[in-house]
Amino acid sequence: MNQRFILLPLLLFFICTSCDNNRHVRYYRVQKEAINPTVISQPSAPSSINWNTPTHWVSTKGSSMRIGSFDVPFADGIGDVSVIKLGGAAGGLAPNINRWRGQLNLKPHSEIEIQQYVKNEESQLGTFQWFTIINPEENETAFLASIFQIETHTIFVKLSATTHGISQLESQFLDFCKSFTSGATQ
Known about the structure:
The chain is an alpha+beta fold and 186 residues long. The protein has a single domain (48-183), classed as Mog1/PsbP, alpha/beta/alpha sandwich (Protein Transport Mog1p, Chain A, 3-Layer(aba) Sandwich). The N and C termini lie far apart (89 Å). The chain is elongated. It has four helices and nine strands; from the N terminus they run H-E-E-E-E-H-H-E-E-E-E-H-E. The chain has a seven-stranded antiparallel β-sheet with strand order 2-3-4-8-7-6-5, sandwiched between helices. Strands 1-9 form a two-stranded antiparallel sheet. 26% of the residues lie in helices and 35% in strands.
């Protein structure tokens, strides 16, 4: 009983002190702090990328990320070529290769392992790295890919086809990549 006698007055005290008859909306004014934007000046990347498309490649809409998209016929089907331009280093060589390896259910490779199979070629746009990614247990999808690292951007060119299609299309893919230039129109 002593506990009820103590709790009841405490409860009443709490209710009385927590209620407020003041039902007015309150407005506050806080002075805004001036922010001076910082502008970082960087050299601009080429405004566009040009290339020579093989005559039998068919331009397609692709996705919003692509600056170029093509259906590429070969003896057993049609491959897909995507050209994507991203800012900066776009994650770097190893993370991008390992992302594509993951798409083919392959384990990641270390930077040292990757350097053993990456090849270099030249275009008017500059040196590019290219490589083949094949899962020997899955012949339905394989990749030929190239990466151009230019000033403030990275350009990825990826051909997706069957393992057999990749071997048929390698020279066309490399000729396409070697044709890349920077210019005013695409």
